[in-house]
Amino acid sequence: MNSTSATNVPYIVRNRNLKSGSVLFRSYFLLLTFLSLFTLLALQMYFYISLPPWSPDLVSLLALLSSGTGLLHLILNKNVKIFGFVGIYAIYLSLAHLGFVFVDLVFEHSNEIMKTNYNLDWFYKDYRLIAVSLSGISITCFVLCASFASKYKAVQNKRLAITNDRNNYQIIYMGGIALLVFSILFLMYNILTGNLPLFSGYMNYRTAMEDVPGYSIMLFCLSTGITFAFASGTRKQIFWSAMIFIIPSLLLLISGNRGEVLYPLAAAIGVLFTRGIRINFKLILGALLLFNVVIPLLQQTRNQELTEFDIRETSVSFVDPMAEIGYTLRPLVYTVGWMQKGEEHAYGSSYLLPINRLASSFVPFIKKSELEGNYYIKPRLPGQGYSVIAEAYFNFGLIGVIIVQIFLALFIVILGERSSNIPMLALFGAIMAILINNIRNTFIFVPGQLLLLVGIFCLFFFLGKRKNIKL
């Protein structure tokens, strides 16, 4: 016994030394990325305030370094999951605003490729560099605040772990499945009755869906359903809910709708990683397939009828998906242009507009605001969506960009990353789908969907209590 113990001592000591060395290296590297982010933030703030004659490549490089360093910092932070809620939001925020910038800077031949698929007039505006620097500032503020907030308490997920045994929250799972089934029935009914032209191209589908009552509710049910099911299901139940989710996803993808699938999918991935799932080869392969094949394929075919589709005319490219996702920079560029031309900031009016309209439905003496004027963004940028960074800048300028991202970081860390039970995780997973959707859209839909979500959650709570199912 003594000789065996003596033999094991060098191995144990060596193992402990390796572990302590790894921890020390991670700590130093984490500090290095933290200081680098502050330096990059200071440089971009200086550019925004002083507008020195820096080259476009330098401004783009600073923003991209902010994004890359920020994501590396989140990977090194043990209290943050890179594919949890914070990581998913940071990744999508970066891709949405800097994907096009990355392609333009890194790929020398990209301009010729993109000119065939995109109108790039906006990209060569004089104030485009201000929009790029605002993107870098926004992403940096989000990462720094999320990292700082995460240090006060380690993520607690033991009670959220995925098991083979059913838990006490089956009412949430059954509710999620019901919402998914409703989405399938809604789509199938409107496709079969001709209300939604599935094979007539994206533009025809988009025009038709605006005339279908309840279409936005269906999309809300789709995202809420998958997050509820993933948050409360067993391993087997998660598998079958994913199979059900594939049905409406395919119908939406065939018609050219990407975002309606990617938003709930991103939130659902955040839910799974919060419950403790680990990265594996299948997940990486699936993500690469989606990013490099599905997105460019949809981009090339979404404006033509399925009968005109020719597989020989399609191509798989790393450039196209990065540029396609990064097109969210466009409305930010236009918004900066409005301010540069003398338009005043909205000072919260675009945020208050949907809140006012919602409150006026319940409080008789509140006058309902009309959907008109400069504060109603949609008709000013038809067909372009919008941007969470652009709307913050539109309302409050640079200080708005900083404050909104700080608020979002604190909100996601405190309520999302620290979800202590399954009901809280299910609720925040659905909220996360709304927040990810808002990255590329205006705020106008957010209050209504949040209110609807709370109502549905309370309904499940009531049903669970009546059936003596723990919530």
Please describe the topology of this protein.
Layout: H1 2-50, H2 56-76, H3 85-106, H4 110-115, H5 128-150, H6 170-192, H7 202-209, H8 215-232, H9 235-254, H10 259-274, H11 281-301, H12 319-325, H13 329-340, H14 349-360, H15 388-417, H16 422-439, H17 446-466
Helix pairs in contact: 1-2, 1-5, 2-3, 2-5, 3-5, 3-10, 3-12, 3-16, 5-13, 5-15, 6-8, 6-9, 8-9, 8-10, 8-16, 10-16, 11-12, 13-15, 15-16, 16-17
Concise account of the structure shown:
The chain is mostly helical and 471 residues long.
Morphology call: globular
Give the N-to-C terminal Cα separation. 52 Å
**SSE string, helices as H and strands as E:** HHHHHHHHHHHHHHHHH
Percent range for β-strand residues: under 5%
SSE-based structural type: mainly alpha
Question: What keywords describe this structure?
Answer:
single chain, 471 residues, mainly alpha, 17 helices, globular
